[in-house]
Amino acid sequence: RPGLETVPLVRRLKRQPVTTSFPSGHSASAAAFAAGVALESPRLGAAVAPLAGAVALSRVYTGVHFPSDVLAGAALGAGAALAVRGLVPTRSQLPPPGRPRAE
By CB distance 3.0 to 4.6 Å, which of 15, 28, 34, 91 could disulfide with 52? Predict the structure, then answer.
């Protein structure tokens, strides 16, 4: 994890993490969620993406991750969303529902 000497006291977390910093799990989760939403609804995905970016930036801002940790986490999260898309089709990949026959 980065050294906290350069991070102002007001930006530090009350409890510092003790686990390894690579990759950032928060960034991975946020990116996976945002990518999953974007795969289902690009319009909603565009609304959620800035929030995922804010999560990633907050991890660097508070000094608990290096930028490379956050980028790796985001890449893993987006990759996970794409991998799940290969297993579970999105609405756009499903055939349209059939109409009942009118007599």
Answer: 34
